[in-house]
Amino acid sequence: MPTRVAFLGPAGTYGEQAARELITLARLEKAELIACGGLRAVMDQLAQGHCDDAVVPVENSVEGGVTAIHDALWAHRELCIRRALVLPIRHALLSSGVITGITEVLSHPQALAQCAGWLATHLPEALQLPTSSTAEAARMVVGSRFRAAIASQAAGVDHGLTQLAYPINDVVGNRTRFLLLERGEPAKEGKVASLAFSLHRNAPGALLEALACVADQGLNMSRIESRPSKRELGEYVFFLDVELNGAAPSALGALIQRLEPLCGRLANFGAYPSSELKIAELSSG
User: Which of 94, 183, 85 is nearest to 135 (CA)?
Assistant: First the structure.
C-alpha cells in the first residue's frame, strides 16, 4: 500500500514542494500525495487516519508561527513530528493580463503579508483578496486580465500564467519551516525536539521556573511561542523547540521529567532531524 501524505493543495503550493522534498528525505516508499483544501483539513486527514503522514507549515521567518497548526497539535495528542524542512520562499506575481491592468491581487493571507511592501509600491490601488492557498489563487486568476495571483513560479507554469514580476517578497531571506507529521510514539533522539505545555498556576515566576529546566539540562531553546488555551482569558499554552545537538540520548527524557510536575499538561511531539534547502536544491518534480 502507498504511503498517503496530506498537504495544503491544490498542486503547485509551497506545501506540495515541501511534501515532495520531505518524502525524499524520509525515504517514504510509493508515496501518494493527497491535496487538501485547508490546513485544518490536512490535520483532520491525519488525525482521523485517512492519511499516514501530513506536511504542514509551522513557522515563517517574516510572519511568525502558523497558529492553526499549533492549535491542532495541542488538540491531537496522538501526533508527533517525524522531520522538519526549512524551505526558501520566493513569490511571483502571475496573471493572464499585464501589470498596468491589475486591479485585484489574490493569494493566501501569509503571502499577501509577505509582499505587503512591494504591493504598496507597485500596486497601491489594487484590492487584495485572501484565498485558501497560493496555488488556488493562481487557479482563480486564469483567463482574467485584471486579476493577479501571488504564488510560486511552479504554480504559474502549471496554470499557463504570465510572470509579471519576480521575486516580490519584501524580505530576501523569506523562509518557511514545514513539518512532516504522523501518528505514533514520539522519537527520543534527533537534532531538535518540540514540546508544548500549560502551567499548573498563573503566578509570578511560574514560566521562568519551567524554562529554567531547559537551561539546567544544558539545552538551547531555539523557539518559544504562546497560544491562548481557549479555556479562559489569560491562560496560555507554550510551544518550544530545544536543540539536542551534542546532548546525551537521555537529555529529552530528563527535561520532560523535570517539566511534568510544573505543567497542567505537557505534550511531547518528539525529537527529529531538521534540514534546510537552498533555492538551487529544490526538486523540479
Answer: 94
Angle made by CA atoms 90, 94, 96, in degrees to the nearest 5: 170
Residue 170 maps to a domain: no
Q: Are residues 194 and 81 both part of a single domain?
A: yes
Helical (H) or strand (E) element with 121:
helix 116-122
* Contact call for residues 147 and 46 (beta carbons, < 8 A): no
Together in a domain, 64 and 111: no
Is the Cβ–Cβ distance between 12 and 136 less than 8 Å?
Answer: no
Q: How many CA atoms lie within 13 A of 224 on its CB side?
A: 12
Q: Does 82 lie in the same domain as 97?
A: no
Residue 228 grid coordinates: 491562548
Q: Is the peptide bond before 167 cis (omega within 30 degrees of 0)?
A: yes
pLDDT of res. 229: 81
Domain-embedded: residue 159: yes
pLDDT tens profile 83-120? 999 999 999 999 999 999 999 999 999 899 999 999 99
Q: Are residues 69 and 103 in the same domain?
A: no
CATH classification at residue 115: 3.40.190.10
Task: Please state, in angstroms and rounded to a whole number, the distance separating the CA atoms of residues 181 and 59.
Answer: 15
Q: Where are the alpha helices (DSSP H) in 163-280?
A: 206-216, 251-259
| Tens-place pLDDT, residues 128-179 | 999 988 999 999 999 999 999 999 998 999 899 999 999 999 988 889 999 9
Q: If you compute the radius of gyration of the chain from its CA atoms, what whole number of angstroms results?
A: 20
Local confidence band at 245 (pLDDT 50, 70, 90 cut-offs): confident
